Amino acid sequence: MNTPSTPLPGGTWDLGELSVSRFGYGAMQLAGPGVMGPPTDRDAALAVLRAAVDLGITHIDTAGAYGPRFTNQLIREALHPYPPELHLVTKVGADRDRNGGWPPAREPEDLRRAVHENLDDLGLDVLDLVNLRLGDAQGPRPGSLAAPLAALVELQQQGLIRHLGVSNATAEQVAEARAMAPIVCVQNMYNLAHRRDDELIDELAGQGVAYVPFFPLGGFSPLQSSSLSAVADRLDATPMSVALAWLLRRSPNILLIPGTSSRAHLRENAAGAGLRLSTEDLAELDGIGR
Ligand SMILES: NC(=O)c1ccc[n+]([C@@H]2O[C@H](COP(=O)([O-])OP(=O)(O)OC[C@H]3O[C@@H](n4cnc5c(N)ncnc54)[C@H](OP(=O)(O)O)[C@@H]3O)[C@@H](O)[C@H]2O)c1
To answer: What are phi and psi of 160, to 5 degrees?
Structure first.
């Protein structure tokens, strides 16, 4: 691993015994259109992954469902053998259908298959962290996660998984999971404009559990808000930088995994997340999602 010339904003966080940069990278945008198929520009995708590691990023978020499988195979091609500091976090619990949909796949057999596919595609003997992805593309759905989580705990006991997390989960499901097994992170949708998990974030912070917001920049529809634009203009920064810097400030347990298929955006985001926000900026931004 290269020694980055500038430290990443936010410092580090411990997922169990695994130290990761709070500024991480989400690999979903590397697959083809609609997160299906191989990337349009394969060399560019490989270069983004290598640039992430060169920047000092030690947390890459992925899933077998991206591509499906292409994204994990790209990660392996770009970065294997992995530097010891790098931790790959994957998700299981959703498949892909012919229309690009994300049908749930949470039967024990689906989860076993998904874990083995992730191991094969990433070229690993053990997965550092596996998130059980719940709900559906519209968001979390209530209901017990006991059966699918028990299947993952069994795979963990077999030595195939180091740590477990949950994703797209309700607060009740997070509590149920934490009563069953040590859970090191929750990965849910959250950003300046979507703040349903405010209480959950604070609760998890108090218990030393990471919260990893997906769609930190709004996902497929970029964040748009006049307050966000006003703060960005005042600071001569992009709205993306402000949104990421706000998340880092929001709570120490928040880990960033902004997605991009562009090296320029990756570098811009890494620098921008270090933007200093004044009390006045924070108060104005705080009003957006409330
Ligand atoms: N657990 C789950 O259910 C779940 C669901 C969704 C996502 N995720 C994870 O969360 C990660 C982040 O989510 P995401 O990638 O969907 O959404 P995101 O990070 O909110 O936004 C990504 C979008 O922003 C654009 N972008 C990034 N930086 C930019 C910049 N500096 N200037 C202009 N545009 C910029 C990207 O386009 P370019 O490619 O052009 O930069 C892309 O279209 C994913 O990669 C994935 O790992 C998890």
So the answer is: -90, -15
Q: What does the angle CA 290 – CA 170 – CA 194 come to, to the nearest 5 degrees?
A: 25
Task: Say which residues have a Cβ less than 8 Å from residue 8's Cβ, sequence separation at least 6.
Answer: 21, 22, 23, 55, 56, 57, 270, 273, 274
Span 139-167, pLDDT tens digits:
999 999 999 999 999 999 999 999 999 99
State how far the Cα of 168 lies from the Cα of 106, in Å rounded to an integer: 13
| pLDDT score, position 260 | 98
Check which CATH number belongs to the domain holding 134 and give it.
3.20.20.100
Q: Structural domain of residue 40, as residue ranges? A: 12-224+251-262
With 80 as the cut, is the pLDDT of residue 68 above it? yes
Alpha helices in the chain (DSSP H): 42-54, 70-79, 108-122, 146-157, 171-180, 198-206, 226-234, 239-250, 263-272, 279-286
Question: Closest Cα to atom 27, ligand 1: which residue?
Answer: 260
In a domain, 218, yes or no: yes
CA distance 275 to 260: 19
Name all residues whose Cβ lies below 6 A of ligand 1.
Answer: 26-29, 61, 91, 133, 167-168, 187, 214-219, 240, 257-262, 265, 268-269
